[in-house]
Write a structure and sequence with these properties.
five-stranded antiparallel β-sheet, 403 residues, alpha+beta, Thermophilic metalloprotease-like
Protein backbone atom coordinates (compact mmCIF):
# COMPACT_ATOMS: atom_id res chain seq x y z
CA UNK A 1 0.00 0.00 0.00
CA UNK A 2 2.82 2.42 0.87
CA UNK A 3 4.76 1.70 -2.31
CA UNK A 4 1.70 2.04 -4.51
CA UNK A 5 0.60 5.30 -2.88
CA UNK A 6 4.13 6.67 -3.38
CA UNK A 7 4.02 5.78 -7.07
CA UNK A 8 0.67 7.60 -7.37
CA UNK A 9 1.27 10.66 -5.21
CA UNK A 10 5.03 11.28 -5.49
CA UNK A 11 5.72 9.68 -8.84
CA UNK A 12 2.55 10.30 -10.85
CA UNK A 13 1.25 13.56 -9.38
CA UNK A 14 4.30 15.14 -7.76
CA UNK A 15 2.31 16.19 -4.68
CA UNK A 16 4.17 18.84 -2.72
CA UNK A 17 3.59 21.41 0.00
CA UNK A 18 0.54 23.57 -0.58
CA UNK A 19 -1.10 21.46 -3.31
CA UNK A 20 -4.85 20.78 -3.40
CA UNK A 21 -5.93 17.29 -4.49
CA UNK A 22 -9.29 16.32 -5.93
CA UNK A 23 -9.76 12.60 -5.25
CA UNK A 24 -12.60 10.78 -7.04
CA UNK A 25 -13.67 7.29 -6.09
CA UNK A 26 -16.53 4.84 -5.83
CA UNK A 27 -17.70 4.19 -2.24
CA UNK A 28 -16.17 0.69 -2.43
CA UNK A 29 -12.72 2.32 -2.32
CA UNK A 30 -13.31 4.35 0.82
CA UNK A 31 -10.53 2.70 2.84
CA UNK A 32 -7.95 3.24 0.10
CA UNK A 33 -9.23 6.78 -0.47
CA UNK A 34 -8.71 7.54 3.23
CA UNK A 35 -5.20 6.12 3.04
CA UNK A 36 -4.40 8.21 -0.05
CA UNK A 37 -5.76 11.35 1.63
CA UNK A 38 -3.57 10.75 4.68
CA UNK A 39 -0.48 10.21 2.53
CA UNK A 40 -1.24 13.36 0.53
CA UNK A 41 -1.49 15.44 3.69
CA UNK A 42 1.75 13.86 4.89
CA UNK A 43 3.45 15.06 1.68
CA UNK A 44 2.31 18.62 2.37
CA UNK A 45 -1.07 18.87 0.63
CA UNK A 46 -3.09 21.85 1.79
CA UNK A 47 -6.45 20.19 1.21
CA UNK A 48 -7.93 16.96 -0.19
CA UNK A 49 -11.40 17.15 -1.69
CA UNK A 50 -13.00 13.70 -1.89
CA UNK A 51 -15.90 12.88 -4.23
CA UNK A 52 -17.59 9.50 -3.79
CA UNK A 53 -19.58 8.71 -6.92
CA UNK A 54 -21.72 5.57 -7.07
CA UNK A 55 -22.57 4.53 -10.67
CA UNK A 56 -25.55 2.58 -9.28
CA UNK A 57 -27.39 5.88 -8.90
CA UNK A 58 -26.99 6.55 -12.62
CA UNK A 59 -28.51 3.14 -13.36
CA UNK A 60 -31.39 3.93 -11.01
CA UNK A 61 -31.94 7.30 -12.71
CA UNK A 62 -31.93 5.82 -16.21
CA UNK A 63 -34.21 2.92 -15.26
CA UNK A 64 -36.80 4.84 -13.22
CA UNK A 65 -36.96 8.52 -14.29
CA UNK A 66 -40.59 9.19 -15.20
CA UNK A 67 -39.75 11.69 -17.97
CA UNK A 68 -36.91 11.03 -20.40
CA UNK A 69 -36.12 14.73 -20.64
CA UNK A 70 -35.17 14.65 -16.95
CA UNK A 71 -32.01 12.78 -18.03
CA UNK A 72 -30.74 16.07 -19.52
CA UNK A 73 -30.74 17.80 -16.14
CA UNK A 74 -27.47 18.52 -14.34
CA UNK A 75 -27.41 20.76 -11.23
CA UNK A 76 -26.16 24.26 -12.03
CA UNK A 77 -23.38 24.15 -9.43
CA UNK A 78 -21.51 21.40 -11.26
CA UNK A 79 -19.93 23.44 -14.07
CA UNK A 80 -18.61 26.25 -11.80
CA UNK A 81 -17.15 23.57 -9.52
CA UNK A 82 -15.26 21.96 -12.41
CA UNK A 83 -14.13 25.37 -13.63
CA UNK A 84 -12.76 26.33 -10.20
CA UNK A 85 -10.70 23.13 -10.04
CA UNK A 86 -8.99 24.13 -13.28
CA UNK A 87 -8.65 27.80 -12.39
CA UNK A 88 -7.04 27.04 -9.03
CA UNK A 89 -4.71 24.40 -10.48
CA UNK A 90 -5.78 21.44 -8.34
CA UNK A 91 -4.27 17.99 -8.84
CA UNK A 92 -6.84 15.43 -10.02
CA UNK A 93 -6.77 11.74 -9.06
CA UNK A 94 -9.37 9.21 -10.18
CA UNK A 95 -9.44 5.74 -8.62
CA UNK A 96 -10.83 3.19 -11.04
CA UNK A 97 -12.12 -0.28 -10.16
CA UNK A 98 -15.85 -1.00 -10.23
CA UNK A 99 -17.78 -2.49 -7.35
CA UNK A 100 -20.15 -4.00 -9.94
CA UNK A 101 -18.35 -4.52 -13.28
CA UNK A 102 -21.55 -5.54 -15.10
CA UNK A 103 -23.77 -2.86 -13.55
CA UNK A 104 -24.90 -1.40 -16.88
CA UNK A 105 -25.60 -4.66 -18.69
CA UNK A 106 -29.12 -4.59 -20.12
CA UNK A 107 -29.57 -0.84 -19.60
CA UNK A 108 -31.46 1.22 -22.18
CA UNK A 109 -28.41 2.45 -24.13
CA UNK A 110 -30.27 5.41 -25.62
CA UNK A 111 -31.31 6.72 -22.21
CA UNK A 112 -27.88 6.05 -20.71
CA UNK A 113 -26.27 7.88 -23.63
CA UNK A 114 -28.52 10.86 -23.01
CA UNK A 115 -27.65 11.05 -19.31
CA UNK A 116 -23.94 10.55 -20.02
CA UNK A 117 -23.92 13.31 -22.64
CA UNK A 118 -25.55 15.75 -20.20
CA UNK A 119 -22.92 14.98 -17.55
CA UNK A 120 -20.12 15.40 -20.10
CA UNK A 121 -21.46 18.78 -21.23
CA UNK A 122 -21.39 20.00 -17.62
CA UNK A 123 -17.71 19.17 -17.27
CA UNK A 124 -16.67 20.07 -20.81
CA UNK A 125 -14.22 22.73 -19.62
CA UNK A 126 -12.61 20.32 -17.19
CA UNK A 127 -12.28 17.62 -19.85
CA UNK A 128 -10.67 20.16 -22.16
CA UNK A 129 -8.22 21.17 -19.44
CA UNK A 130 -7.29 17.54 -18.83
CA UNK A 131 -6.79 16.75 -22.52
CA UNK A 132 -4.49 19.79 -22.83
CA UNK A 133 -2.67 19.05 -19.52
CA UNK A 134 -3.51 22.39 -17.95
CA UNK A 135 -3.56 20.63 -14.56
CA UNK A 136 -1.70 17.53 -13.31
CA UNK A 137 -3.99 14.51 -13.40
CA UNK A 138 -3.83 10.77 -12.95
CA UNK A 139 -6.06 7.75 -13.36
CA UNK A 140 -5.08 4.60 -11.45
CA UNK A 141 -6.55 1.33 -10.28
CA UNK A 142 -8.07 0.40 -6.95
CA UNK A 143 -8.92 -3.34 -7.12
CA UNK A 144 -12.29 -4.69 -5.99
CA UNK A 145 -13.39 -8.24 -5.29
CA UNK A 146 -15.96 -8.32 -8.11
CA UNK A 147 -13.50 -6.93 -10.64
CA UNK A 148 -10.69 -9.26 -9.52
CA UNK A 149 -13.00 -12.26 -9.78
CA UNK A 150 -13.85 -11.28 -13.36
CA UNK A 151 -10.16 -10.97 -14.25
CA UNK A 152 -8.95 -14.07 -12.43
CA UNK A 153 -12.01 -16.26 -12.96
CA UNK A 154 -12.34 -16.91 -9.24
CA UNK A 155 -12.97 -14.96 -6.06
CA UNK A 156 -10.95 -17.32 -3.87
CA UNK A 157 -8.07 -15.46 -2.19
CA UNK A 158 -8.86 -12.68 -4.64
CA UNK A 159 -6.81 -9.95 -2.98
CA UNK A 160 -3.57 -11.93 -2.88
CA UNK A 161 -4.23 -13.28 -6.36
CA UNK A 162 -4.83 -9.92 -8.02
CA UNK A 163 -1.84 -8.27 -6.35
CA UNK A 164 0.38 -11.14 -7.55
CA UNK A 165 -0.67 -10.06 -11.05
CA UNK A 166 -0.54 -6.30 -10.49
CA UNK A 167 2.75 -6.02 -8.61
CA UNK A 168 5.08 -6.53 -11.63
CA UNK A 169 2.79 -4.53 -13.91
CA UNK A 170 2.94 -1.57 -11.51
CA UNK A 171 6.67 -2.17 -10.96
CA UNK A 172 6.09 -2.47 -7.23
CA UNK A 173 8.51 -5.41 -7.13
CA UNK A 174 11.44 -3.05 -7.74
CA UNK A 175 13.62 -1.64 -4.95
CA UNK A 176 12.54 1.90 -5.80
CA UNK A 177 9.27 1.80 -7.81
CA UNK A 178 9.13 5.57 -8.29
CA UNK A 179 12.62 5.58 -9.80
CA UNK A 180 11.74 2.54 -11.94
CA UNK A 181 8.83 4.43 -13.45
CA UNK A 182 11.28 7.20 -14.27
CA UNK A 183 13.52 4.74 -16.15
CA UNK A 184 10.52 3.29 -17.99
CA UNK A 185 9.49 6.82 -18.92
CA UNK A 186 12.85 7.31 -20.65
CA UNK A 187 12.34 4.23 -22.84
CA UNK A 188 8.84 5.30 -23.85
CA UNK A 189 10.13 8.75 -24.75
CA UNK A 190 12.94 7.22 -26.82
CA UNK A 191 10.34 5.47 -28.95
CA UNK A 192 8.30 8.66 -29.26
CA UNK A 193 11.38 10.65 -30.30
CA UNK A 194 12.13 8.14 -33.06
CA UNK A 195 8.61 8.48 -34.45
CA UNK A 196 8.76 12.27 -34.22
CA UNK A 197 12.11 12.35 -36.05
CA UNK A 198 10.55 10.60 -39.07
CA UNK A 199 7.35 12.69 -39.38
CA UNK A 200 5.36 9.85 -40.93
CA UNK A 201 2.39 10.95 -43.03
CA UNK A 202 0.36 7.87 -42.12
CA UNK A 203 0.48 4.54 -40.31
CA UNK A 204 -0.82 1.26 -41.68
CA UNK A 205 -2.05 -1.56 -39.44
CA UNK A 206 -2.35 -5.01 -41.00
CA UNK A 207 -3.42 -8.34 -39.55
CA UNK A 208 -6.41 -10.70 -39.43
CA UNK A 209 -9.50 -8.63 -40.21
CA UNK A 210 -7.48 -5.41 -40.21
CA UNK A 211 -6.20 -3.23 -43.04
CA UNK A 212 -6.30 0.30 -41.67
CA UNK A 213 -4.55 3.51 -42.72
CA UNK A 214 -4.42 6.38 -40.21
CA UNK A 215 -3.35 9.74 -41.63
CA UNK A 216 -1.14 12.19 -39.76
CA UNK A 217 -0.26 15.87 -40.29
CA UNK A 218 3.18 17.56 -40.14
CA UNK A 219 2.33 19.38 -36.89
CA UNK A 220 1.61 16.12 -35.04
CA UNK A 221 3.97 14.71 -32.44
CA UNK A 222 4.02 11.51 -30.42
CA UNK A 223 3.92 11.73 -26.65
CA UNK A 224 4.58 9.04 -24.05
CA UNK A 225 4.83 8.50 -20.32
CA UNK A 226 5.02 11.65 -18.27
CA UNK A 227 3.62 15.05 -19.27
CA UNK A 228 4.16 18.59 -18.01
CA UNK A 229 1.25 20.72 -16.79
CA UNK A 230 0.80 24.45 -17.19
CA UNK A 231 2.47 25.10 -13.81
CA UNK A 232 5.53 23.04 -14.75
CA UNK A 233 4.64 19.90 -12.79
CA UNK A 234 5.89 16.67 -14.37
CA UNK A 235 3.15 14.05 -13.95
CA UNK A 236 1.92 10.71 -15.30
CA UNK A 237 -1.67 10.83 -16.60
CA UNK A 238 -1.97 7.05 -16.27
CA UNK A 239 -0.38 4.41 -14.08
CA UNK A 240 0.37 1.99 -15.66
CA UNK A 241 1.40 3.35 -19.06
CA UNK A 242 3.03 1.44 -21.92
CA UNK A 243 1.96 3.49 -24.96
CA UNK A 244 3.35 6.06 -27.35
CA UNK A 245 0.44 8.04 -28.75
CA UNK A 246 -0.54 10.92 -30.99
CA UNK A 247 -3.51 12.75 -32.45
CA UNK A 248 -4.24 11.81 -36.07
CA UNK A 249 -5.77 13.83 -38.86
CA UNK A 250 -9.38 13.11 -37.96
CA UNK A 251 -10.47 13.13 -41.62
CA UNK A 252 -7.80 10.80 -42.96
CA UNK A 253 -8.61 7.31 -41.65
CA UNK A 254 -9.43 4.67 -44.24
CA UNK A 255 -10.07 0.94 -44.18
CA UNK A 256 -11.29 -1.72 -41.82
CA UNK A 257 -10.13 -2.70 -38.35
CA UNK A 258 -11.02 -5.53 -36.00
CA UNK A 259 -10.80 -5.06 -32.23
CA UNK A 260 -8.72 -7.61 -30.36
CA UNK A 261 -10.04 -7.06 -26.84
CA UNK A 262 -13.42 -6.26 -25.31
CA UNK A 263 -14.01 -2.69 -24.17
CA UNK A 264 -16.53 -1.12 -21.81
CA UNK A 265 -18.78 1.39 -23.57
CA UNK A 266 -21.36 3.29 -21.51
CA UNK A 267 -20.86 0.71 -18.78
CA UNK A 268 -21.59 -2.31 -21.00
CA UNK A 269 -18.97 -4.72 -22.35
CA UNK A 270 -18.64 -4.62 -26.13
CA UNK A 271 -16.73 -7.56 -27.61
CA UNK A 272 -15.84 -8.50 -31.16
CA UNK A 273 -16.20 -4.92 -32.40
CA UNK A 274 -15.12 -3.87 -35.89
CA UNK A 275 -15.20 -0.60 -37.83
CA UNK A 276 -14.93 0.49 -41.44
CA UNK A 277 -13.75 4.05 -42.09
CA UNK A 278 -14.11 6.35 -45.05
CA UNK A 279 -12.68 9.90 -45.08
CA UNK A 280 -12.04 9.62 -41.35
CA UNK A 281 -15.50 8.59 -40.26
CA UNK A 282 -16.97 5.22 -39.22
CA UNK A 283 -19.40 4.26 -41.99
CA UNK A 284 -20.01 0.67 -40.91
CA UNK A 285 -19.55 -1.14 -37.62
CA UNK A 286 -20.57 -4.24 -35.75
CA UNK A 287 -19.92 -6.24 -32.58
CA UNK A 288 -20.57 -9.70 -31.19
CA UNK A 289 -22.09 -8.23 -28.02
CA UNK A 290 -23.82 -4.90 -27.28
CA UNK A 291 -23.65 -3.61 -30.83
CA UNK A 292 -26.58 -1.29 -30.03
CA UNK A 293 -24.58 0.33 -27.23
CA UNK A 294 -21.73 0.90 -29.64
CA UNK A 295 -24.16 2.53 -32.06
CA UNK A 296 -25.42 4.83 -29.32
CA UNK A 297 -21.85 5.83 -28.51
CA UNK A 298 -21.07 6.64 -32.14
CA UNK A 299 -24.10 8.94 -32.29
CA UNK A 300 -23.17 10.91 -29.14
CA UNK A 301 -22.00 13.87 -31.23
CA UNK A 302 -20.36 14.62 -34.57
CA UNK A 303 -16.88 13.67 -33.35
CA UNK A 304 -17.75 10.34 -31.74
CA UNK A 305 -17.34 8.46 -35.02
CA UNK A 306 -13.87 9.86 -35.84
CA UNK A 307 -10.43 9.23 -34.36
CA UNK A 308 -8.87 11.36 -31.67
CA UNK A 309 -5.91 9.11 -30.88
CA UNK A 310 -3.56 6.52 -32.34
CA UNK A 311 -1.43 4.59 -29.83
CA UNK A 312 1.35 2.05 -30.32
CA UNK A 313 1.99 -0.62 -27.69
CA UNK A 314 4.24 -3.66 -28.06
CA UNK A 315 3.58 -7.19 -26.86
CA UNK A 316 6.53 -6.67 -24.50
CA UNK A 317 4.03 -4.85 -22.29
CA UNK A 318 3.80 -6.67 -18.93
CA UNK A 319 0.04 -6.27 -19.20
CA UNK A 320 -0.05 -8.17 -22.48
CA UNK A 321 2.43 -10.76 -21.16
CA UNK A 322 0.13 -11.52 -18.22
CA UNK A 323 -2.21 -13.21 -20.70
CA UNK A 324 -5.23 -11.67 -18.98
CA UNK A 325 -8.04 -9.41 -20.10
CA UNK A 326 -8.53 -6.81 -17.36
CA UNK A 327 -11.96 -5.46 -18.31
CA UNK A 328 -10.55 -2.07 -17.38
CA UNK A 329 -9.51 0.39 -20.07
CA UNK A 330 -6.61 1.70 -17.98
CA UNK A 331 -4.95 -1.71 -18.24
CA UNK A 332 -6.31 -3.11 -21.49
CA UNK A 333 -5.32 -0.03 -23.51
CA UNK A 334 -1.75 -0.54 -22.29
CA UNK A 335 -1.74 -4.16 -23.44
CA UNK A 336 -2.05 -3.46 -27.15
CA UNK A 337 -2.05 -0.91 -29.94
CA UNK A 338 -5.30 1.03 -29.94
CA UNK A 339 -7.28 3.78 -31.56
CA UNK A 340 -9.68 6.11 -29.76
CA UNK A 341 -12.98 7.29 -31.14
CA UNK A 342 -13.69 10.78 -29.85
CA UNK A 343 -11.80 13.77 -28.55
CA UNK A 344 -8.20 14.38 -29.62
CA UNK A 345 -5.21 15.28 -27.44
CA UNK A 346 -4.12 18.87 -27.98
CA UNK A 347 -0.66 18.37 -26.47
CA UNK A 348 0.15 16.12 -29.46
CA UNK A 349 -0.20 19.12 -31.79
CA UNK A 350 2.47 21.79 -32.05
CA UNK A 351 1.02 24.78 -30.16
CA UNK A 352 -2.25 22.89 -29.72
CA UNK A 353 -2.82 23.47 -26.01
CA UNK A 354 -3.57 27.18 -26.51
CA UNK A 355 -5.83 26.80 -29.57
CA UNK A 356 -9.59 27.38 -29.50
CA UNK A 357 -12.01 24.60 -30.34
CA UNK A 358 -12.66 26.06 -33.78
CA UNK A 359 -8.93 26.39 -34.46
CA UNK A 360 -8.39 22.77 -33.41
CA UNK A 361 -11.08 21.64 -35.82
CA UNK A 362 -9.34 23.60 -38.58
CA UNK A 363 -6.16 21.71 -37.68
CA UNK A 364 -8.17 18.48 -37.95
CA UNK A 365 -7.98 17.62 -34.26
CA UNK A 366 -11.19 15.79 -33.45
CA UNK A 367 -13.57 17.43 -30.96
CA UNK A 368 -16.04 15.35 -28.98
CA UNK A 369 -17.60 14.92 -25.54
CA UNK A 370 -16.35 11.31 -25.49
CA UNK A 371 -13.06 9.44 -25.85
CA UNK A 372 -12.93 5.64 -25.75
CA UNK A 373 -9.99 3.42 -26.65
CA UNK A 374 -10.52 0.35 -28.82
CA UNK A 375 -7.69 -2.19 -28.77
CA UNK A 376 -6.51 -3.41 -32.19
CA UNK A 377 -3.08 -4.92 -31.48
CA UNK A 378 -1.85 -8.49 -31.04
CA UNK A 379 1.02 -10.80 -31.96
CA UNK A 380 -0.48 -10.95 -35.47
CA UNK A 381 -0.47 -7.20 -36.15
CA UNK A 382 2.17 -5.31 -38.17
CA UNK A 383 2.47 -1.52 -38.09
CA UNK A 384 4.25 0.40 -40.85
CA UNK A 385 5.06 4.10 -40.98
CA UNK A 386 4.69 5.69 -44.42
CA UNK A 387 6.81 8.74 -45.20
CA UNK A 388 5.62 11.68 -47.30
CA UNK A 389 7.73 10.29 -50.16
CA UNK A 390 6.12 6.87 -49.87
CA UNK A 391 9.02 5.14 -48.10
CA UNK A 392 8.00 2.45 -45.63
CA UNK A 393 9.47 1.85 -42.16
CA UNK A 394 8.45 -1.14 -40.08
CA UNK A 395 7.54 0.02 -36.58
CA UNK A 396 5.97 -3.13 -35.16
CA UNK A 397 6.31 -6.65 -36.58
CA UNK A 398 4.11 -9.43 -35.19
CA UNK A 399 3.26 -7.22 -32.25
CA UNK A 400 6.87 -6.36 -31.29
CA UNK A 401 8.54 -2.99 -31.62
CA UNK A 402 11.51 -3.08 -33.98
CA UNK A 403 12.59 0.52 -33.39
Amino acid sequence: MNAYSDVILRGALGIKKGDVLWLRSEPVHIDFARFIAGRAYGLGAKYVEVSLDDPAFTRIQVDTATEEEFLDYVPSYRTPMFDSIVKEGWRSLALRGPAEPDLMEGVDSRKLGRATKAASLARKGFLSAVSSNRIPWNVCLAPTRAWAEKVLGSGENWEAGIWDVLTPILRLDKEDPVAEWGRHDCELKRRAEFLNSRSFSRFVFKGPGTDLSVGMLPDRRFCAGSSTSADGTVFFPNIPTEEVFSTPDCRATEGIVKCTRPVTVYGAQVSGAWFRFEAGRVVEFGADTNSEVLGQYLSTDDGASMLGEIALVGVDSPIYRSGLVFHNILFDENASCHIALGNGYTDCITGGTVLTESSLLERRCNQSLVHTDFMIGSEEIDVTGIGSDGTETTIIRKGEFVI
